[in-house]
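re: ur msg from earlier - yeah i can do the phosphoric acid mono(formamide)ester complex, just paste it... oh wait u already did. ok heres what im feeding in:
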Amino acid sequence: MAKTTRITYRCSFCGKEQNEVQRLIAGPGGVYVCDECTHAFTEVLANAESALALPAHTRVLTAADPYKEKVGGLVRCSFCGKSREQVNAMIAGPGGVHICNECVDLCLQIIEEERNPAAHGHAEQTHAPSSADGVRKHLLDVDDWSASEIGALFARADAMGAALARPETKLDTLRGKVMVNLFYENSTRTRVSFELAGKKLGADVTNVTASASSVTKGESLIDTVRTLQALGARIVVVRSSQAGAPDLIARHIDGSVLNAGDGWHAHPTQALLDLYTIVRRLGPVRGRRIVILGDILHSRVARSNIWTLTAMGATVVLCGPPTLLPPAAADLYAARPVPGTDARREVIVEPHIERALEGADVVMALRLQRERQQAGLLPSIREYSAVWGLTPERLKLANPGALVLHPGPMNEGVEIDPAVAYGDASVIEEQVTNGVAIRMAALELVAGADQKRGE
Ligand code: CP
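and the outut:
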């Protein structure tokens, strides 16, 4: 029987373990904040003279503090990635961890609503429910998806693909339902494919971007979604730079929420369409070596892909510069067995690109996310490209017939050579095409939960 490693999670600010506090909220890349620190930070941010002491080695940054770390990088929130200039206040903890006032607010809301859901207008538990009955109210992440649930969704995506091959017909799965694409970050593939998927299923689809909404006049996320609900929205597809925003919305509306990418945290439909594309080309991924290459630290796509690929039995190899790899990634994933089994998730960190690519069945190149990075993580783009770029020569190390994926948008000539991006091994455009069928299947899944609630 596979052995499972036990990992102790600690608050990155006060160092208390999970069992010493009431709630530990996870950020990306292995950072955590506990409920006690969240309350202390909230009070100190509201009142600098607060009696609630901050933990040792933790303090609110002031104007006298430099805006860059000693190593030369901008000071950024370890949870949402925003720089100090983009937020009102930033709290520094030990070991270079930071949290901004916006993420403190979000954590506080999550904690308070878990303690007293009725006071927040929703007595129902709105976490994504178990899909034992084949139904999910929301699609917020894929960390708790089993192989059989993924397989069932893919069977529905096959049926959706067949429906898409008949452009003249529309399905009525979502007929009479209002679906809102609420995008606080830019997107081409995800937003358009969700819109096409919703329309094909018969929904009334509307798009809201933050820059063209009352968010610019100071309306909060919660007020925005309540307004959308008052306008009849039953399905909200949300993209946000803040990890946890879809989860928060899910607690405030009666309808369903689908995460279209939140901060560094998760991009569940991207992971599902990536896996679907691989399976359609190569068959089952069990035992396959799948390399995720590049800026893994900032990648919600990588995080979600690790859950789905390992759930199906693939070995995931993470490769990139040490500054762009999440610490202890292999142990963190191995500590959470695949749902319904005691199977250990196989994740390997291999910092040498040639060793990582040798024998690979799939190489997934990731975009270098310059907008989320601290300066100082890389010597230069030219050096990154020279050392970590996926070139035709490097791809020859992979197995014959290996596939190349990229979630897009690509920085051609940086993380991927155009000869690879448009070469025979590339299935990048297939990923985009498959995104519509996968998102139709995901919308149908949550619509099933809506139907059940209405019965
Ligand atoms: N892969 C992805 O999320 O692309 P978009 O940002 O264009 O949606």
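cool cool. The pocket of phosphoric acid mono(formamide)ester is lined by residues 187-190, 261, 270, 407-409 (CB under 6 Å). ping me if u need the other ligands too
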